[in-house]
């Protein structure tokens, strides 16, 4: 059974964890407060604790309800509040009852939310998932096989998707290998929070020490008898001072012999080219300069690969971690036994196939990609990118600083803001034609709107981030005023880890607050922000690594604890799906194809790209709005775009669209008074009694319209209402029948285009002057009849022009790909009734 688009979206689960406090009126509880936790309605939960109903008022009084959510999307429970109350020396004579005031409980909650006056405790005890166990075992086995080999330092690559839990699994490997000194190097210092949190909060790593630039633990305070993890940036620990020597503060790192060196986010610094490609935004100018300068001293000149032998730091093992190590996979830097693979498809397949309760993958959301073709009135100003494709960097280009920043094409960007709220779709008449196929827009569709409280907008530059903030603040954009808009770009946002806290603080009570985070590079790798549920790709990106590193920021699991016995499950999943929104259709599908094919080394080596792509989009469905309707794209459609620039399936669907034909009353009236037109249409298969049908459509639609206009609502009796309803059903049904028959005729046009070889002429001229007999055989319509119907406006020539041009451009690309291009010398291309220069063709995104 074919899935509807609406079936892809889950309903947002209910659940809002709260700490509640109540008094009991019974004398034995005098002076005491009960502190509890629930993820359901507080009153209902408290009533459950008083199952025996007695006459008179309730024996309790609720005195406090507070959100139990932290700004990072995690939640705390009553047990956490109890711990702090006890640390405050508040008497706790009986379980959850405390001898305190409401203000004391509020103070404890504030301490939990802010982290002030509350030391981090080891309270996490989750276990490794099966694939993490596999990674540790495979790596341990490989490293141990080198024990007797002197002079060779083993290295291992974890090709593990974002959200795999690389930090936690790496620490478990360290324990298994009995490592005592671990150095973690990264090009993205923002990942520090993940490394520090896992080490300092999980019970498995009790006794370990975390050392970092931004950490309170100083080098002189390190306990040499306990294991340490030293975290720092590649730029800092391996960088040079002004005279080319080691920075004095880092000498101890260079003189220590490490049990293991771990390279996190390896794709960001493994090759000179990659460093230049990936540090491409204005936001990363400082890191880009360091990457391009310092990394070259550790790169083999002949191969261009990172060479551990050139490292000025000594170690017994190297572990490389990345979610997108494409060049490492294809360059041969690592052989098969040195690679552990775990992809997004692996994860989602494991989630689907898990049997029984306690599914460890349950909280990891499914990703959905939604792509939209913008209306010509919005996108035409930015049709100046490579290959004349829609250029997001041009569209969102801006100049000026902070409050003075402004978009170059502000009117068009405003239309885009209206579009994602459901405005500026095709004309009202076309909207009627689309009916239920109208695309779900991010801030209009009720299902999407309910989950997109916190989104990340990936912009082209610092100026465009501020320009968007300024535009969203305008009076006419009052809808967006419910969202706190954060600019995480430029020097004011801070470097690395410093850019994250303001975002988390703005998400106070994340189930109730709303935010939009604007960035052009920061926070796009290595960070976890649970409340982000959607990312808007609003800049040009040619690298699948960069694209999906950013996209997977929104795929973090988000669940709330259910430990109060009020619900059958242990956790409520807050984010069953997350969304990628893209407004450059071709670009998006090309990157999906590249990502899926490069990531699965086995399928690529077996020359089975369709299997790789098919498996990937099975778990990441792609919905595409092509200007006519929204459809789900299959693997063949993705590969069409990857290899030739557009999708044959999408092009074919354009000829199966209600927008290509006109069946409004005005057009039908012109047909009705033209006997030749009526006869022409009746020559098309399926048309019978057309005269009578058109009269019924026009007369009954006008009658219903007039009756509704003349009669007030209270004057329409039930009998009259039923009559009007029946008339409305009848004429709408007949109009739809006429429309469907005309569409059926339109779908034969591509068959004719395949058969004809005349490309410099308009399709209309080919039909009417050059190959009329072929056209009659294919479509069943004579040339003069077709000409007449075109003149009466039965066919939408503007949309047909675009469909014809796209078809011919796609055919060219397909033939070129196969090595046959009989049209390479053609300098002009004919549309439906227009001829243009070939280089002027615009491929719709």
Quickly give the CATH architecture of the domain at 130-347.
Answer: 3-Layer(aba) Sandwich
The CATH superfamily of the domain at 130-347 turns out to be P-loop containing nucleotide triphosphate hydrolases
The counted number of beta strands is 25
Count helical runs.
35
Q: Classify the helix fraction into a percent range.
A: 25-40%
- And the CATH topology of the domain at 130-347? Rossmann fold
Low-confidence stretches: 270-293, 427-432, 565-569, 644-650, 754-763, 808-845
Distance between the termini: 30 Å
The order of strands across the largest sheet is 16-17-15-18-21-12-22-23
Quick one: overall form? globular
Largest sheet: 8 strands, mixed
**Backbone CA Rg:** 32 Å
- Roughly what fraction of the amino acids lie in strands? 5-15%
User: What's the CATH first level of the domain at 130-347?
Assistant: Alpha Beta
Instruction: Give average pLDDT, whole number.
Output: 76
Class computed from helices, strands and strand pairing: alpha/beta
Describe the structure.
With 845 residues, the protein is α/β, with parallel strands linked by helices. Among the domains are: 18-114, no CATH class; 130-347, P-loop containing nucleotide triphosphate hydrolases (Rossmann fold); 610-654, no CATH class; 748-845, no CATH class. The strands form 6 sheets. Strands 16-17-15-18-21-12-22-23 form an 8-stranded mixed β-sheet, sandwiched between helices. Strands 7-8-6-9-10-5-11 form a 7-stranded parallel β-sheet. A 4-stranded antiparallel β-sheet has the order 3-1-2-4. α26 packs antiparallel against α35, α31 packs across α33 (772-779) and α32 packs across α33 (772-779).
């Amino acid at each position: 059974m074919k899935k509807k688009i609406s079936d892809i979206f889950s309903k947002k689960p209910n659940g809002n964890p709260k700490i509640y406090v109540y008094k009991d009126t019974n004398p034995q509880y005098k002076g005491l407060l009960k502190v509890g936790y629930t993820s359901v309605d507080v009153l209902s939960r408290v009533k459950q604790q008083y199952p025996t109903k007695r006459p008179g008022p309730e024996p309790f009084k609720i005195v406090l309800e507070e959100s139990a959510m932290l700004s990072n999307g995690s939640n705390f429970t009553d047990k956490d509040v109890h711990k702090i109350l006890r640390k405050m020396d508040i008497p706790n004579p009986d379980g959850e009852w405390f001898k305190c005031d409401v203000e004391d409980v509020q103070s404890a909650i504030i301490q939990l939310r802010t982290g002030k006056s509350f030391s981090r405790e080891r309270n996490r005890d989750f276990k490794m998932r099966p694939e993490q166990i596999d990674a540790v075992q495979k790596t341990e086995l490989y490293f141990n096989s080198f024990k007797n080999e002197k002079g060779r330092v083993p290295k291992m690559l974890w090709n593990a998707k974002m959200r795999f839990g690389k930090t936690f699994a790496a620490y478990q490997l360290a324990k298994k290998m009995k490592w005592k000194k671990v150095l973690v190097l990264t090009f993205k210092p923002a990942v520090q929070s993940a490394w520090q949190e896992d080490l300092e909060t999980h019970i498995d790593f009790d006794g370990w020490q975390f050392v970092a630039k931004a950490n309170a633990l100083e080098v002189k305070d390190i306990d040499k008898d306990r294991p340490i993890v030293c975290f720092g940036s590649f730029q800092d620990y391996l960088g040079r001072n002004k005279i080319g020597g080691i920075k004095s503060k880092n000498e101890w790192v260079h003189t220590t012999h490490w049990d293991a060196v771990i390279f996190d986010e390896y794709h960001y610094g493994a090759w000179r080219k990659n460093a230049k490609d990936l540090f491409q935004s204005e936001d990363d100018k400082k890191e880009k300069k360091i990457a391009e300068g310092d990394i070259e001293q550790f790169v083999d000149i002949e191969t261009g690969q990172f060479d551990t032998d050139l490292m000025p730091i000594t170690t017994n093992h190297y572990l490389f971690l990345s979610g997108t190590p494409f060049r490492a996979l294809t360059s041969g830097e690592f052989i098969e036994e040195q690679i552990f693979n775990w992809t997004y498809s692996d994860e989602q397949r494991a989630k689907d196939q898990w049997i029984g309760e306690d599914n460890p993958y349950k909280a990891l959301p499914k990703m959905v990609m939604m792509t939209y073709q913008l209306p010509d009135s919005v996108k035409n100003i930015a049709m100046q990118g490579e290959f004349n494709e829609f250029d997001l960097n041009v569209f969102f280009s801006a100049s000026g600083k902070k409050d003075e920043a402004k978009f170059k094409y502000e009117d068009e960007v405003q239309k885009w803001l209206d579009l994602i709220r459901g405005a500026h779709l095709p004309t009202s008449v076309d909207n009627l034609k689309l009916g239920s196929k109208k695309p779900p827009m991010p801030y209009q569709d009720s299902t999407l709107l309910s989950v997109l409280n916190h989104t990340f907008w990936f912009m082209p530059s610092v100026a465009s981030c501020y320009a968007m903030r300024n535009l969203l603040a305008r009076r006419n954009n009052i809808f967006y005023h419910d969202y706190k808009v954060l600019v995480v770009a430029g020097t004011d946002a801070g470097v690395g880890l410093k850019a994250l806290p303001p975002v988390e603080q703005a998400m106070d009570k994340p189930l109730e607050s709303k935010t939009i985070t604007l960035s052009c590079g920061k926070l796009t790798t290595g960070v976890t922000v649970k409340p982000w549920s959607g990312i808007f790709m609003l800049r040009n990106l040619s690298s699948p690594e960069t694209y999906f590193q950013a996209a997977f920021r929104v795929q973090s699991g988000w669940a709330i604890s259910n430990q109060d016995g009020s619900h059958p499950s242990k956790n409520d999943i807050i984010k069953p799906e997350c969304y990628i929104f893209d407004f450059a259709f071709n670009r998006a599908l090309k990157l999906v194809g590249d990502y899926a094919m490069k990531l699965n080394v086995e399928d690529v080596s077996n020359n089975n790209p369709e299997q790789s792509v098919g498996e990937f989009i099975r778990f990441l469905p792609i919905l595409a709005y092509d200007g006519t309707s929204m459809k789900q794209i299959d693997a063949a459609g993705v590969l069409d775009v990857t290899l030739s620039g557009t999708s044959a399936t999408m092009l074919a669907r354009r000829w199966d669209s209600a927008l290509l034909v006109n069946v409004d009353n005005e057009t039908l009236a012109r047909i009705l008074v033209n006997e030749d037109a009526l006869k022409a249409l009746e020559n098309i298969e399926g048309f019978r009694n057309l005269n009578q049908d058109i009269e019924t459509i026009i007369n009954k639609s006008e009658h219903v319209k007039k009756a509704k206009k003349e009669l007030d609502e209270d004057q329409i009796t039930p009998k009259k209402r039923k009559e009007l309803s029946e008339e409305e059903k009848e004429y709408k049904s007949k109009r739809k029948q006429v429309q469907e028959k005309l569409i059926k005729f339109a779908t034969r046009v591509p068959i004719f285009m395949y058969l004809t070889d005349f490309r410099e002429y308009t399709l209309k001229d080919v039909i009417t002057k050059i190959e009329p007999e072929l056209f009659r055989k294919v479509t069943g319509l004579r040339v003069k009849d077709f000409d007449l119907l075109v003149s009466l406006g039965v066919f939408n020539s503007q949309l047909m022009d675009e469909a014809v041009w796209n078809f011919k451009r796609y055919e060219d690309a397909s033939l070129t790909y196969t090595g046959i291009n009989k049209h390479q010398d053609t300098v002009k291309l004919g549309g439906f009734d227009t001829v243009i220069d070939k280089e002027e063709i615009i491929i719709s995104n």
